[in-house]
Amino acid sequence: MEEERKLNFLEEIIEDDLKSGRVKSILTRFPPEPNGYLHLGHAKSLCINFGLAMKYGGKTNLRYDDTNPVKEDTEYVDAIKEDIQWLGFQWDKELYASDYFDQLYIWAEQLIERGLAYVDDQSQEEISKGRGTVETPGTPSPWRDRSPEENLRLFREMRDGKYADGAKVLRAKIDMAHPNMFFRDPILYRIKHASHHRTGDKWCIYPMYDYTHGQCDSIEHITHSICTLEFDVHRPLYDWFIQTLGIFPSHQYEFARLNLTYTLMSKRKLLELVQKGLVSGWDDPRMPTLCGVRRRGYTAEALKMFCDKIGVSKRDQMMDIQLLEWCVRQDLNARSNRYMVVQDPLKLTITNWPAGQVEWFDCPLNPAEPEGASRKVPFTGELWIERADFMEDAPKKFFRLRPGGEVRLKYTYIIQCDEVVKDAEGNIVELKCSYDPASKPGAGEWRSVKGTIHWVSRPHAKELELRNYDRLFTLADMGAVPEGHDYKEYLNPDSLVVARGLAEPALLDDASGIAVQFERTAYYIKDKDSSAEHPVFNRTASLKDSYKPE
Ligand code: ATP
Ligand code: MG
């Protein structure tokens, strides 16, 4: 039975709207600016926008907010689509704010004709200064009272490329003393002689966010325009444009953006990490981007589980990255295939094993389904085990291998350690053991011993490069970098440690497409840098963690 959950505030609003008949069906949109790759914060927004539409039988548009040609690129446009589809969401229409440049321009001329917009020749600094402060009203621009005819002529000249960048702007004429600073004659258009990734050189004036977003929503008949909390101060202006133009009444609702411990999600800073080579790229497995966490081995299911658990709130809060890691483990524990890999190898030889004999064991790929698919694992008298699974002077509670002690080699026999071989410096280089043929699983009565360890047959072992990743930053609250310091000072120097692994051969034939579990240690996923001769695996998450969600 599905757990009963209280409706979140957005679900309440939507249910009320459907009940009252304000809307007949739900249409949301996801509005990324194509100036970077999507990150975990966007995943939350995607889950909310697509999740609500799906829950209430509605649809979601993908609309690129591409009003700033200088920072935008088709590379990002394509990557964003790939990431959304990877999460398992399908948009209804693929649209661009730039699709509406003609309509937005027509509306701007209408505002000018109605005396509600004017061309301002002031510089950016003069305009900012003239806005005043929250306590003091602004001062009107000397150009505020130009006639509609003059404004229209100047605006058309702006459009036709007569002026340089920054020479003029178009502003709405609202109220220079308005308590909401966004109403103090907001800028509608600025001049930018730049090629646009879609409209090319057709335009050299580009609309501002506030003048664009609401009208785009309205054109598409978006019913619920859901965005992050920092836009709540923009909402009255969003409504003002829609009311003043008398167009479809879309409404905006705000939720708290996702903040995660040890994580930065500003695209500007992520871009800097890429450009300075501090990470290998946008899809570096340490990056919080969706392509990064995907390469790390995080699953779409785990991300959605996480978004579901954190819910939708109206108050900003810091989420614990351990909850996300927990979701990743939950999902992979249920679904991932198991293989044995030794990282820090110690030679183990079984002295009573017939020389050269290979016994193949049928081992389940997932222990939760013992009758399910299996892989074949070769067992011989020459093995690798993990160095940490042997201890010469072991304390009482050490249940793995010790001199004279017994342990089961996973899926196979019980062995006993008869002799510890050391080199001239006294380092342990080999264990000589004997196996108990009667202890084979399924062959007679089960004999249990306290410890089970993983192993790999030496003649069959496949060598791997392991990229053991850890958190990219060392500071829990990356939004609280102390004054006078730079966020880059908090990069974790141990966020990538390269190691060697020795794997059972079936690992290299895994076709699951998701991360696998290296038994008893961690989840790993094959990296795109792999070749047949040189397999590379990224550590997704360690197996064990003391963290438990509330
Ligand atoms: P950044 O500040 O990282 O550059 P942005 O807000 O400029 O992000 P957009 O591409 O404009 O990024 O965002 C698309 C959508 O995703 C917007 O609706 C935005 O509110 C939402 N979004 C961005 N960051 C987060 C976040 N951390 N948590 C939740 N939603 C987010
Ligand atoms: Mg933005």
What does this protein structure show overall?
- Helices cover 25% and strands 24% of the residues.
- The chain has 550 residues and is an alpha/beta fold.
- The chain folds into three domains: 9-257, HUPs (Rossmann fold, 3-Layer(aba) Sandwich); 267-337 and 464-542, Glutamyl-tRNA Synthetase, domain 2 (Orthogonal Bundle); 341-454, Ribosomal Protein L25, Chain P, CATH 2.40.240.
- Strands 12-25-26-27-23-24-13 form a seven-stranded mixed beta sheet. Strands 21-18-19-20-14-17-22 form a seven-stranded mixed beta sheet, with no helix packed on it.
- A hairpin with a 5-residue loop joins strand 19 (414-422) and strand 20 (428-436).
- Helix 7 crosses helix 8 (235-245).
- The radius of gyration is 31 Å and the shape is elongated.
- The mean pLDDT is 96.
- Bound molecules: adenosine-5'-triphosphate and magnesium ion.
Instruction: Label the CATH architecture of the largest domain.
Output: 3-Layer(aba) Sandwich
The CATH C-level class name of the largest domain = Alpha Beta
Strand order of the largest sheet: 12-25-26-27-23-24-13
List ligands, each type once: adenosine-5'-triphosphate, magnesium ion
| Total separate domains | 3
Distance between the termini: 21 Å
Number of helices: 12
